[in-house]
Amino acid sequence: MNLYYQLSKIGFLKNSYAYKFLFVTFIGIHIPLIGLLFFVLFGKEHASTNTIFVFILLMTLLATGITLLVLKKIINPIEVASIALDDYRINRTVPELPMVFKDEAGLLLYNIQKSISDNEAYRTEKEDLVYLLSHDLRNFASNAQSLSRFILDEKPSETIAEYADLICQTTHQQFIFIENFINLIKEEDKISKKVPVVKSIQFHTILTLVSDQVEQKLNSKRIKLIKELEVNNGNLRMEEDLLVQVLVNLIDNAIKFSHPDSEIKVSVTLEKNKIIFGIADSGIGFDSVYKDELFKKFTNRGRMGTADEPSTGIGLYLCKKIVEKHEGIILANSKGIDKGSLFSVVFENLK
What gap in Å lies between CA 203 and CA 230, rounded to an integer? Predict the structure, then answer.
């Protein structure tokens, strides 16, 4: 940035990035001519043609090298801006870019710094506001629920008791929604801060961790989890805990919409250098027309499970967000209602 800074001090170059390029190029083009002039004036009086030719060739190569080096240094503000954007996108690191330059590159640096700072301030304010509203809403719901329970304790008439019970049920659903909303914000923030790195992952270990986390829900509906590993390990740009989270969410979803005494199959296969995690069930399935709706947060396509389990509306959304952040894809397929479903998570097996 030092050369760019020095050139920006020159009056006619201050406000134009293009003029800086043209100025350096102009000087570079004339270095051979200046060198030849000095050679003629101060060199040997009877220099041979070959000597002059070699001298001009060397001066031209030298001038070209110097010019390219200087132009590379002038491009430095663009490189700095690119690195700052990548670092913010991946690590949420707010840069400190210079904001005093007046040309096009300076304007780019200014706008990137201002946009990132404003976006970070907005994110912080939004999170604070959401947590504040969630806290207040929880208090309002808690007050209504407490009052309805006091009414029920007084042994009111049957009609009033029904109304009070309805208030209890409604406020309980409000609590669930508020908790899901807060969890969504926390999970999205956690995902955004994770830095994707290539790791060698043992799939048997991953599936063991997943099985432990879903065992209780499987037992409650007497569902058998079948594991099929065609490949034992792979290199994925993903943390093990996030991969476990994705698979647990998908299996939870399969359990919710599977019938008791059924089976869920988890498979890990390798096809054309692609690692594919498959979660297949024989449950209630879905109409393929609405498969994209499944991955939207708080979708109106949410359904009760086969044992009346509630749907939070965020599980599949978070799965999609995690997978796509780590350069994978997630797919949902079903042959129709009551014909089961298959969810596939696909990653490239990196070297």
Answer: 10
Report d(CA 60, CA 43) in Å as an integer: 18
Q: Can you read off the two tokens belonging to residue 22?
A: 């043209």
Q: Which long-range contacts (C-beta less than 8 Å, at least 24 apart) are formed by 64-68?
A: 64/28, 66/28, 66/31, 67/24, 67/25, 67/27, 67/28, 67/29, 67/31
Helices (H), 200-260: 203-220, 240-256
CA dist 228 and 207 (Å) reads 10
Q: Give the pairing type, strands 263-271 and 224-229.
A: parallel
- CA 341/CA 257 separation, integer angstroms: 9
Enclosing H/E stretch for 189: helix 158-193
| Chain position carrying tokens 């042959």 | 335
**What was the pLDDT predicted at 299?**
62
**Whole-prediction pTM value?**
0.58
Contact, 33 vs 27, CB < 8 A?
no
Other C-beta atoms closer than 10 Å to the C-beta of 171 total 21
Alpha carbon of residue 347 to chain centroid:
15
The answer to whether residues 250 and 345 touch, using CB atoms and an 8 Å cutoff, is yes
pLDDT digits (tens, 9 = 90+) for 157-201: 888 888 888 787 777 766 766 776 676 666 767 666 666 778 899
Other Cβ atoms within 10 Å of 275 Cβ, number: 22
CB atoms within 10 A of CB 286: 23
A 10 A CB-CB count for 238 gives 23
Task: Output 19-27 pairs: Cβ under 8 A, ≥24 positions apart.
Answer: 19/103, 20/74, 20/103, 21/71, 21/74, 24/67, 24/70, 24/71, 24/74, 25/67, 25/71, 27/67
Q: Which 3 state secondary structure label does DSSP give 331?
A: strand
Task: Return the amino acid letter for 263.
Answer: E
- CA 12, distance to chain mean position in Å, is 43
Max Cα separation, the chain? 124
What is the Cβ-side half-sphere exposure of residue 194, based on CA atoms within 13 angstroms? 22
